[in-house]
Design goal:
It is a single chain. By secondary structure, this protein is mainly α. It has one domain. It is built from eleven helices and no strands. The longest helix is centred in the first third of the chain and has 27 residues, at 65-91.
Length: 295
């Protein structure tokens, strides 16, 4: 049992932020040793094995009936479709920081879709936040394309990945808002693994070089990203820190861009920095603007 206020809890936010942001860098590094979809498939197969073992040891409660279907579909969209498209975008030249920034719009898009469905009205500063977020992303993308760091097709892949994640989140909120972390996680990773394995053999000629660099990247993606970071995320939410978790996600694009500059040598120009700040401010205005009035 972890004591409230203990070392793990105090370190959880910082550790989560570092591990989550680093996943974008690891994904780019891994492409030097494997085709994109094959790398995603290996990651999810290994993660599914680990989650299955943990679920069996803990005698987790498995989803059944219609809940099983929805949990699997959410996993297919949030993990399988989302990451296959992101890694294809990486392979086309899209930078880690750019991908992180576009994906940071996901909570904003989700909120804007969910609000009308729930009969809620968006406040003026939240509309301002949406505009700021879009302007910020536009500045970063414009800068990257002007420097030849990515293609319009690659950018479109990241946007499609973000929309897949948005759809998965909305489905989860509507049809399966709660389920056992390990058993449900197993179902989701199995669905993602099945999709990515099939996609690898259909859409590409799978190729993997089992070099030390690839093994290190895969260990990071499976253990640090898929197991530790997700566990820390759920620990913080379980302790009633949902708002704090949301605020941490605002920092992911900036940290990912900084790590990409330090590790991958990606350009981190003044224009990109301004876009990053604008997008971060926009996301904050939309999601942290207080309660939304019902119409």
């Amino acid at each position: 049992m972890i004591r409230h206020g203990g070392l793990v809890e105090r370190a959880a936010p910082v550790l989560f932020l570092l591990l989550w942001s680093g996943g974008y860098i690891a994904g780019r590094l891994g492409l030097a040793h494997a085709t994109p979809i094959a790398m995603v498939a290996i990651r999810f197969v290994l993660a599914a094995v680990i989650f299955t073992l943990i679920a069996l040891v803990l005698r987790a409660h498995w989803p059944r009936g219609t809940q099983l279907f929805w949990v699997a579909l959410v996993g297919l969209l949030n993990l399988g479709v989302h990451f296959v498209l992101v890694y294809l975008a990486f392979a086309s030249g899209v930078g880690a920081g750019t991908a992180a920034l576009i994906n940071a719009l996901q909570p904003v898009i989700t909120a804007c879709i969910a609000m009308p469905l729930l009969g809620e009205r968006v406040r003026p500063w939240q509309w301002l936040g949406l505009v700021l977020g879009l302007v910020g992303v536009t500045l970063v993308i414009w800068n990257k394309l002007a420097l030849g760091l990515g293609t319009p097709g690659g950018i479109a892949l990241v946007f499609a990945a973000m929309l897949a994640l948005t759809g998965g989140v909305l489905l989860q909120k509507r049809f399966c808002p709660s389920f056992d972390l390990w058993a449900g996680g197993t179902v989701q990773y199995l669905a993602a693994a099945a999709f990515s394995v099939a996609a690898a053999f259909i859409a590409e000629t799978p190729s993997v070089t089992l070099a030390p660099g690839f093994l290190g990247v895969m260990a990071y993606l499976v253990l640090a990203n898929s197991v530790v970071a997700v566990t820390l995320l759920n620990l913080m939410i379980h302790r009633g820190e949902a708002a704090r978790v949301t605020s941490l996600l605002y920092l992911v694009p900036g940290l990912a861009a900084l790590l990409a500059w330090l590790i991958l040598g990606e350009t981190f120009s003044l224009l990109a920095m301004l876009g990053l700040v604008a997008a971060g401010a926009g996301v904050w205005l939309v999601l942290a603007g207080g309660s939304i009035r019902r119409s």
